[in-house]
Amino acid sequence: MQSGIDVADGYRRTEIMDGPAGPIEVKIAGEGPAVVLIPSLGRGADDFDDLSVRLADHGYMAVAPEPRGIGASTGPLDDLSMFDLAADTAAVIKALDVAPAPLVGHAFGNRVARMTATEHPELVESVVLLACGGLVPAAAEHLEALQTVFMSDVSDAEHQAAVATAFFAPDNDASVWFDGWHRAVSDGQTRATTSLNPSHWWQAGQADVLVVQPEDDVVALPANASAIVEQLGDRATLVTIPRAGHALLPEQPEAVAAVVLEWLSNRIQER
Fold first, then answer.
1. pLDDT tens digits along 177-224
2. Which residues contact 203 (CB under 8 A, 6 or more apart)?
3. What is the pTM of this model?
4. Which of 2, 148, 186, 192 has a CA-to-CA distance to 68 between 20 and 30 Å?
5. In what order do the strands lie in the sheet containing 61-65?
């Protein structure tokens, strides 16, 4: 008998869709209700490979668009705005005809998810925020480490140390994220998020929100999660994942999947 992951692998495929400013490469796994996955700053859809398989194995269609500048996804990165990034996500949901769909955004991706829910509420069923930042800033040393991750003129040892400092909880294996960093994409996304006051997208429109907070996150500090849950009241649910930093997905994949799957199951039962 095949394992669940082997079965899910048979559903993996890649599609190229028309976006507002160029083609969008979309990685899809499984069949069933769609769940749209949006990756972290300067990183691609591969970060969701494990979660995609787990979602597919439980009867969902995991939809992971590549951001502009990664894979076959194109479109200008200069003068990029949060409106553009939300429009890219909206275009994928419309192309697949899966609205309203839950969005899962990791780190910077949860800013895009909240922006999409704000600008395109009819397309969004709910929002899951993995490592929820955007309001309370990180300490200077951790912001410096985050910037170092994208530098091309540092040694491998300096790069790996920066990844460990900014993204991983103590004693977790940071080497799994040695690669996968896209400087030009990060620069464009950073310009987009700094050009718009976070208050515009902070509350995710009127969508219900699941906040998944890594206990040891030094970039998206727990104070951000507490703040959004306090502001949103009954619309928000908070779950804390121990032994995880800002990377979260490679650190605690089973715990993340369990939380997301429980959220999705409850949402479907309510509909």
1. 999 999 999 999 999 999 999 999 999 999 999 999 999 999 999 999
2. 114, 118, 228, 231, 232
3. 0.94
4. 148
5. 13-19, 22-29, 61-65, 34-38, 101-106, 124-130, 208-214, 236-241
